[in-house]
């Protein structure tokens, strides 16, 4: 068994990376040194410093209940990227096998969690300005040249699917603002072995694309909707577009996609918690899944525990009106606790990341629009797959890089108060 250093980048308080042109950066090469990642074979991936900024500590998870046994801090530079592999590993296994196993070691973390679900952010742009997602002052977006190209997205998707990923979800920003969005879905929908292609959208520009997306192979759609009241919608999104979203919902239901339409509702105390039962009523005659999401802290969203309301409080409120509420059976890797009001067409669920996390069955990985792999939504450690691709790395070396990151994944994320003090990207730059 060998140990090698995982390649990580660390965001600053605003989640913004250094934007100095690469040609003006002094590149320093260093060989891999022992660290805390166990590999089943020799890893030959090197690292390259692309920033002369001061060193920062990669902070351990402050949640002391973690089963992780490594408590020391690892000093890293503020931005690392993969260099050319130093040499070929004699024991390395070619990743692109014609008959790959359902789960390969580089998609399994040190706690035995198999990662079969990949979320890819297609853009940092959005046509809304939701207060819990985007800071009021906006964000500094990367130049287009620093975002993943269509070919790079497809290559990464094919690599992950060949190694056991079964479902891909496309996020943003708002994915529909990407000019080649439908064409990209068509290419992803043709990947052999991919069982589900989903997307999360605000519904503003989605309706006219629905027929083409269904033909492209999209199997499931989530629409974000936090209120059914027009003035509130304008207040939280900073755009007057509720009618367009409701029209999109009706159109999506009529399209009859293979999987049930889902609505994502972030519940904020004092803003929309009084509408919870209105959303439940929405399921009476619609075969739809309303998911109430606990308010989560991210960079720039001014999270306040006074605005937080737990799912148990929401369930109690719903139960005061709807007596016959059925608890539905959980499925493996579910993030939502599912319920159904007896007699309703649709169902409701609660995503309880803050009050009752589901880290033990997490099977999700994320790729940001600028090509960084995040193994945890709430983690601030990232690794650049974009830079590895543009350095000419082959799939085997990409797999080594991905595997090191996945094995570094912690047993669980920190609690909401610790998260509110930690550094992370704004949600719009993560991709949900």
Chain-wise SSE layout:
Blueprint: E1 2-4, E2 9-10, E3 28-30, E4 37-39, E5 47-49, E6 56-58, E7 74-76, E8 80-82, E9 117-121, H1 150-162, E10 167-171, H2 181-189, E11 196-201, H3 210-216, E12 220-224, H4 230-237, H5 242-255, E13 261-267, H6 276-282, E14 288-294, H7 311-319, E15 325-327, E16 336-341, E17 347-351, E18 364-367, E19 372-374, E20 381-384, H8 385-390, H9 395-407, H10 416-421
Parallel strand pairs: 9-10, 9-18, 10-11, 11-12, 12-13, 13-14, 14-17
Antiparallel strand pairs: 1-4, 2-20, 3-5, 5-8, 6-7, 15-16, 16-17, 18-19, 19-20
Helix pairs in contact: 2-3
Q: What is the percent of helical residues? A: 10-25%
Please state the overall shape, judged from the principal axes of the Cα atoms: globular
Please give the order of strands in the largest beta sheet: 2-20-19-18-9-10-11-12-13-14-17-16-15
Which regions contain 5 or more consecutive residues with pLDDT less than 50? 1-103
Number of helices: 10
CATH H-level superfamily title of the domain at 105-359: Aldolase class I
Tell me the span between the first and last alpha carbons. Answer: 35 Å
**Mean pLDDT over the full residue set:** 75
What is the CATH class of the domain at 105-359? Alpha Beta
Strand percent estimate? 15-25%
Number of strands: 20
From the 3D structure, determine the CATH topology of the domain at 105-359: TIM Barrel
Secondary-structure element string: EEEEEEEEEHEHEHEHHEHEHEEEEEEHHH
Largest beta-sheet details: 13 strands, mixed
Q: Quaternary arrangement of the chains shown?
A: single chain
Radius of gyration: 22 Å
CATH A-level architecture of the domain at 105-359 = Alpha-Beta Barrel
Helix/strand/pairing category:
alpha/beta
């Amino acid at each position: 068994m060998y140990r090698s250093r995982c390649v990580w980048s660390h965001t600053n308080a605003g989640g913004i990376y250094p934007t100095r042109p690469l040609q003006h950066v002094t590149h320093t090469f260093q060989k891999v040194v022992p660290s805390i990642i166990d590999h089943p074979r020799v890893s030959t991936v090197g690292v390259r410093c692309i920033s002369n900024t001061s060193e920062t500590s990669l902070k351990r998870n402050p949640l002391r209940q973690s089963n992780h046994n490594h408590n020391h801090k690892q000093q890293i530079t503020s931005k690392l990227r993969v260099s050319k592999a130093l040499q070929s590993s004699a024991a390395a296994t070619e990743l692109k096998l014609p008959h790959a196993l359902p789960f390969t070691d580089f998609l399994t973390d040190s706690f035995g969690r198999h990662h079969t679900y990949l979320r890819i952010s297609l853009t940092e742009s959005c046509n809304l300005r939701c207060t819990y997602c985007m800071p009021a002052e906006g964000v500094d977006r990367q130049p287009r040249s620093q975002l993943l190209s269509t070919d790079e997205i497809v290559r990464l998707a094919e690599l992950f699917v060949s190694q056991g990923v079964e479902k891909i979800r496309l996020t943003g920003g708002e994915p529909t603002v990407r000019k080649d969005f439908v064409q990209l879905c068509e290419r992803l929908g043709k990947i052999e072995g991919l069982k589900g292609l989903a997307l999360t959208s605000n519904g503003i520009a989605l309706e006219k694309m629905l027929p083409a997306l269904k033909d492209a192979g999209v199997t499931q759609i989530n629409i974000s909707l936090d209120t059914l009241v027009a003035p509130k919608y304008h207040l939280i999104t900073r755009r007057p577009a509720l009618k367009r979203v409701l029209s999109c919902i009706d159109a999506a239901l009529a399209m009859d996609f293979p999987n049930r339409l889902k609505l994502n509702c972030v519940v904020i105390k004092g803003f929309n918690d009084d509408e919870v039962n209105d959303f439940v009523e929405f399921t009476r005659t619609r075969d739809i899944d309303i998911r109430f999401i606990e308010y989560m802290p991210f960079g720039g969203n001014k999270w306040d525990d006074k605005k937080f309301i737990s799912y148990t409080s929401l369930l109690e409120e719903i139960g005061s009106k709807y007596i016959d509420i059925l608890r539905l059976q959980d499925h493996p890797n579910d993030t939502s606790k599912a319920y159904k009001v007896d007699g309703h067409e649709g169902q409701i669920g609660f995503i309880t990341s803050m009050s009752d996390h589901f880290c033990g069955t997490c099977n999700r990985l994320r790729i940001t629009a600028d090509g960084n792999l995040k193994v945890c939504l709430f983690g601030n450690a990232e690794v650049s797959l974009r830079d590895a691709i543009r350095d000419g790395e082959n799939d085997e070396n990409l797999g080594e890089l991905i595997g090191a990151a996945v094995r570094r994944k912690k047993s669980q994320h920190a609690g909401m108060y610790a998260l509110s003090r930690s550094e992370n990207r704004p949600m719009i730059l993560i991709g949900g």
